[in-house]
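wait is this the right file?? whatever heres the structure
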């Protein structure tokens, strides 16, 4: 008897209320729209995550690799109860955040990836996902971990997250921290900001298409490139790892 294996492999998502879009005024005065995207939008996000796999600074490589895998898994129906929110400035992608609903009462924060530095776009989008779990879905708490020192400063320290060290987090099995409803309430109006409804003009612009990040994180300039080019008449040498792990052109 033929078996439709896809029916077994594909998890069936539980119904959760959608995240209502909001707009946050950034320090520059620019409005950033934060909204939920659908599975069908994932192919528009992946090309902007991929280059960050090779960006070693601030743990972008680790986080981008994990986000890529989670988004692809979500797109191909290999992830249970995942949601994805994006921050867009004038249509351009500024940040991606995702998470998962473990059950009705417990949320699992997955990742925050800022694609425009220095404006707290990551912090605002992280706040939006906490809002999704606590205010919109009505969960009691969200398990959080940090992969980078900046993440630790932004989440554990700014929100004063509680230790849940006895609970291994889904991200690498490391000890968890928790954002509780009480901590969320304390952060309302300071860390958690934004307005609803989003004006039709702003929302239409955001929904019209996910435009590329305007100033994505890039590798620092290589000031020695000119010196090395003396030995590279073709001008095509790339930095690569030597046998001993040292880098040379
Ligand atoms: C963690 C993260 C989401 C925070 O995003 P954010 O709130 O928008 O903050 P930024 O990354 O722009 O800035 C964080 C700090 O780095 C500084 N910074 C570092 N590089 C910078 C750059 N190129 N331009 C501007 N600021 C920079 C900022 O001044 C800021 O300092 P502050 O904390 O005193 O305000 C973001 O740094 C990120 O995506 N990092 C890589 C992935 C990651 O670690 N994700 C979280 C996993 S727990």
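ok assuming it is, sequence goes like this
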């Amino acid at each position: 008897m033929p078996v439709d294996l896809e029916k077994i492999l594909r998890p069936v998502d539980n119904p959760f209320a959608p995240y209502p879009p909001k707009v946050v005024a950034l320090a520059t005065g620019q409005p950033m729209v934060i909204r939920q995207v659908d599975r069908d939008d994932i192919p528009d996000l992946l090309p902007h995550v991929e280059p960050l796999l090779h960006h070693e600074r601030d743990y972008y490589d680790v986080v981008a690799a994990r986000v890529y895998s989670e988004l692809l898994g979500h797109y191909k129906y290999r992830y249970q109860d995942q949601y994805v929110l994006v921050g867009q400035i004038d249509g351009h992608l500024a940040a991606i955040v995702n998470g998962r609903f473990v059950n009705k009462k417990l949320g699992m924060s997955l990742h925050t990836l800022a694609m425009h530095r220095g404006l707290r776009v990551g912090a605002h989008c992280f706040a939006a996902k906490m809002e999704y779990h606590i205010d919109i879905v009505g969960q009691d708490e969200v398990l959080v971990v940090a992969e980078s020192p900046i993440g630790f400063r932004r989440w554990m320290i700014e929100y004063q997250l509680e230790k849940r060290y006895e609970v291994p987090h889904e991200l690498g099995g490391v000890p968890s921290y928790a954002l509780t409803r009480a901590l969320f309430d304390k952060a309302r109006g300071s860390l958690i900001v934004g307005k609803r409804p989003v004006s039709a003009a702003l929302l239409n612009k955001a929904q019209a298409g996910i435009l590329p990040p305007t100033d994505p994180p890039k590798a620092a300039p290589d000031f020695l490139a000119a010196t090395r080019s003396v030995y590279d008449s073709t001008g095509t040498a790339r930095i690569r790892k030597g046998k001993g792990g040292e880098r040379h052109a």
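The pocket of coenzyme A is lined by residues 58-60, 63, 112-114, 117-118, 120-123, 146-148, 150-151, 153-154 (CB under 6 Å). so i think its the right one actually
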